[in-house]
Amino acid sequence: MNKFVAPIAALAFLFSVGIANAEEAAGKVAAVDASTGSLILEDGTTFTIDEGVSMDGLEPGTEVTVSFEERDGQLIATEVAPSN
Predict the structure, then answer these.
(1) How many other C-beta atoms can be found within 10 angstroms of the C-beta atom of residue 49?
(2) DSSP H/E element including 64
(3) Rounded Cα gap, residues 2 and 4, in angstroms
(4) Selecting from 2.40.50.320, 3.30.43.10, 3.40.50.80, 1.10.1660.10, what CATH number does the domain 23-82 have?
């Protein structure tokens, strides 16, 4: 029984750390640069768009919600959706 407790505890810890790293931001798009894969909100927050995340329909003035993670000091947008 003890040989199962440590691996299960380790997986639970890793899963909880992954969830804790995901964050969300909302605001108006100030600029989008598809060539560099960057998105800047009007408050100055700059995101790098993660591979596979669509940038279709993103243009200045669009209200968006951005799900992101911090990786190596950069904010990486893992999902970008228009706000309702």
Answers:
(1) 23
(2) strand 63-71
(3) 5
(4) 2.40.50.320
Digits of tens for pLDDT over the chain (84 positions)?
556 545 554 445 444 444 446 799 999 999 999 999 999 999 999 999 999 999 888 999 999 999 999 999 999 999 999 986
Round to whole Å and give the CA distance between 37 and 53.
10
Cβ pair 54, 64 in contact under 8 A: no
Where exactly are the structural domains of the chain?
23-82
Pairing mode, strands 63-71 and 74-82: antiparallel
